[in-house]
Amino acid sequence: EAFLYSSHCGVAAEQLKNNPRHKAYLEGVSLCQLKKLHVLLRGHLRGESLAESLGKIEQEQNIDPEEDMNKLDDEELAKRKRIMDELFEKNRKKKDDPDFVYDIEVEFPQDEQLESCGWDGESCEEV
Length: 127
Hints:
Helix content: 40-55%
Family: Belongs to the CEP19 family.
Pfam families: CEP19
Radius of gyration: 23 Å
InterPro entries: CEP19
Oligomer: single chain
Largest sheet: none
Strand content: under 5%
Order of helices and strands: HHHHH
Main location: cytoplasm
GO biological process, one term: microtubule anchoring at centrosome
């Protein structure tokens, strides 16, 4: 079951957020938070503990780096892409962040022996 990002949870969260009666109260609440809340409530109604529901949310938000995404169907692939986009935005440094640095310079140690990759040592004529 697509747990956190199921269309049912997303639709319910959007309807709640866009409802004129609740709009003023939920203006500062993100759609993602409302989806999580909906998942927690559904889990509670199914008899799941809070820890079980939170564990499913956590599992649903993680990306397995070993997973072959070429084997996923379009819906599952879109879900993984949404998760990666959210993680990127969450971790991205913005100009307004207090620890933002515009131009980072890194010096790499030169005393180590550099290995050739093989492909970069051939001339263009050999190819």
